[in-house]
Amino acid sequence: MKNLLAGILATSAFLIGLSANATSQVETWKTKEGASVYFLHAPEIPIMDMVVSVDAGSLREGSKYGLASMTAGMMTKGTSKLDEEAFLTRLDDLQSSINAGASLSSTSFSLRSLTKPSLLTPSLELFYDVLTDAKFNEKVFERERTQAIDGQKAILDNPSKIASELYYETLYPNSVVGATSKMLESSLKALTLQDLENFRQQFYQANNAKIVFVGDLQKTDAEAIAAHISELLGKGEILPALASITPNPSNKVVEQYYNSPQTQVLMGQPAIDRFNDDYLPLIVGNHLLGGSGLTSILMTNIREKDGLTYGIYSYFAAGIYKGPFTVGFSTKNESVTEAIEKSKAVIAKFIKEGPEEEALQRAKNNFLGSLVLDMNSNAKLANAILGLAAYDLPLDYYETLPEKVKAITPAEIQAAFKRHVNPDKMATIIVGGVVEK
Q1: In what residue span(s) does the Peptidase M16 N-terminal domain sit (predicted)?
Q2: Labelling 431: which of 26, 197, 335, 417 has CA 20 to 30 A away?
Q3: Where residue 81 falls among pLDDT bands split at 50, 70, 90?
Q4: pLDDT band per the 50, 70, 90 thresholds, residue 18
Q5: Is residue 273 domain-resident?
Q6: pLDDT at position 21, please?
Q7: 78 and 86 in contact (C-beta within 8 Å)?
Q8: What is the pLDDT of residues 310-349, one digit of tens each?
Q9: Are residues 114 and 203 in the same domain?
């Protein structure tokens, strides 16, 4: 059995190496205005994927919650040359796609286009216009804002989303991470087109940008495209440090009534950021504990053995701030207390005894295999490269990852969990028919 597991792990390592070697072959440079560029020549199919990411995430909003997402959303709703319908029709004619979206730390714009010059050149022109000539139409803005507000109101009809909101509000109060749907709704109603324009002007700058190319494109072409994008964005002022997210560790229990035969439960505590030395042991260990679906320890015990839920999971949300370790599941109303206690007992046992060697080997294989799927297209490779850049990781990170994963011991995982996870100090959110109105 051990020889079989070793063979499977070696195969997974080889497969991920095929993608990892690609990221280690990335060429990098800076534009005149200060944009960081990452280029990977991938000529296998005649497609180019490009991502432009700027330091304009929701951490830059201040108290104007929703501003980053609203600005990003409006950027693809037409330009001064083409209204929204004409813009979408033109993209369809070119068989291209342009998307924009905001996260906590950044706003990203992506272009996918065939590299045939008659298609790529006009697709790039559309992309340039999105970055610097997007037209903020009042009617479109009102429509998008209404949809966003309706989306926040809809949270109140979804017990899992209610639980998530209460969870982050409990662990990260008074921050954009813990902002509630009511806070977002109020902020969205107060936003103006000028707010969006000001946000774009302040944060969509070349010296705050990362540009990633993956596909059938020559380096000289990438250099010219990156230089043009950088020139269009221009060099802005050096931005202040990002707003800090201060977690609020708490073992409080928050219950909210929701008329349902099932209760949603979230448990967790602030744990680590992406820069923590314990990141990899925790991620690999959690893959075994609650991150690998039906084969995870939590699923085997709480679902298969005890029959308390159809599904249970756990994860570490490690980003630029100290994200939480989270356990989530739904269960029958009458089983809530038992499911919570037994879930905590499984976690406590995992921390006390550490993972079994054979089970850990299977989890490592599964973990590495899942990473292959995360990099099996140009677009996924581009996002993987962007992730390495965002956290200042070496470009050969994925190439060296299999050996690092193989080297992790049960004792290292156990020690890391002891440092960062304590079932007795977890906040617990319960949303369902458990308490009376």
Answers
A1: 46-176
A2: 417
A3: very high
A4: very low
A5: yes
A6: 57
A7: yes
A8: 999 999 999 999 999 999 999 999 999 999 999 999 999 9
A9: yes
Task: Count, in order, helices (H) and strands (E) of the chain.
Answer: 16, 11
Total domains, the chain: 2
| Count of C-beta atoms within a 10 Å radius of residue 183 | 17
Angle, CA of 45, 46 and 51, to the nearest 5°:
95
Together in a domain, 422 and 284: yes
Please say whether the beta carbons of 301 and 400 come within 8 A: no
CA–CA separation, 128 and 125 (whole Å): 5
176 DSSP 8-state letter: S
Q: What is the CATH number of the domain that holds 270?
A: 3.30.830.10
> Model's pTM, two decimal places?
0.90
- Find the domain containing 170 and state its range: 31-233
Encode 72-107: b = buried (16+ Cβ within 10 Å), e = exposed.
bbbbbbbbeebebeebeebbeebebebebebbbbbb
Within this chain, do residues 210 and 88 fall inside the same structural domain, yes or no? yes
> How crowded is residue 299: how many other Cβ atoms within 10 Å of its Cβ?
22
Model pLDDT for residues 132-171, shown as the tens digit of each residue:
999 999 999 999 999 999 999 999 899 999 999 999 999 9
- Whether 96 and 88 have beta carbons less than 8 Å apart is answered as no
Identify the three-state secondary structure at position 186.
helix
pLDDT tens string 391-404? 999 999 988 999 99
For residue 412, the SS3 value is helix
Q: Are residues 177 and 270 in the same domain?
A: no
Q: Tell me: pLDDT of 437 over 90.
A: no
Same domain, 86 and 160: yes
Q: What are the structure tokens assigned to 206, written together?
A: 């070349």
Domain boundary among 169, 199, 233: 233
Q: Does residue 304 surpass a pLDDT of 70? A: yes
Residues 53 and 192 in one domain: yes
Could you give the CA distance from residue 110 to residue 93 in angstroms, rounded to a whole number? 18
Strand partners, 270: 324
Q: What is the DSSP string of 201-247?
A: HHH--GGGEEEEEEES--HHHHHHHHHHHHHHH---PPPPPPPP---
Q: Do residues 269 and 324 touch, judged by C-beta distance below 8 A?
A: yes
37 falls within a domain: yes
- Residue 196 tokens read as 């969006």
Q: Of 318, 95, 337, 106, which Cα lies nearest the Cα of 203?
A: 106
Reference 217, options 118, 290, 114, 129; nearest CA is 114
Provide the 10 A C-beta neighbour count for residue 361: 20
Q: Which tokens sit at 281?
A: 């042991």
pLDDT given at position 373: 76
Q: For strand 107-114 and strand 209-215, is the pairing parallel, antiparallel, or unpaired?
A: unpaired
